[in-house]
Amino acid sequence: MLRVKKGAAFAILALIATGFTGTSGFANPAASSLREVEDTSRVQKAALPSKKAKALKQLFDEDVSPKGFRFCGVDQKTGECKGKSGMRGAGLGGTLLPLVLEIKSVKILERSRQDGKLSLKSKFKASVNGIPPACARTTGTITLSASEPAELNYKNFYCNWLGIGNVLTKVKLTIEDVDLEGRRFSGKYNVRFNGTGNVFGTGRFIAFAR
Predict the structure, then answer these.
(1) Contact, 74 vs 205, CB < 8 A?
(2) CA 176: distance to chain centroid?
(3) CB within 8 Å of 116: residues ≥ 6 apart
């Protein structure tokens, strides 16, 4: 009968274990091969361009791209436009005056690209309580990459309302869908302004090429 000392038995068991785990110099060929396949797959996946990024480039960054977009607020239940209403927010003015902001459209004046980002010099058409404010031209940025979701951001542009309301305005559009055939995009909006009046609003939108 073969006798094995306890120390030798533990050494043999350790060698067997390392053969399966691929550590301590005893590599597991199957595990190694599997890791290589996973790594290669991960690299290839990262290199694939996003369909949305391609669509955004065609919609915003080419000679045939629209010169502007008209916005409509979307009914959460039906997914359809709420008549002719745009993107809306509500709040109060300095004397507790109720304010309703409505952003109806944006005109694209210039386009430029740098470091994978597209800059859109723009002019918004909006109203507060039905009266258009005087807003400065502003530049929005959108990253044309495979990252999800895509966002178009306009930060802190100045508006004046009736000569007495001075506010800084922000518009953020989270783009969830791009329809090249219909020349439109849709998603969620977040609008606000702060200053002598304060307004905030969120919801869903559709932007139609003009």
Answers:
(1) yes
(2) 8
(3) 143, 144, 145
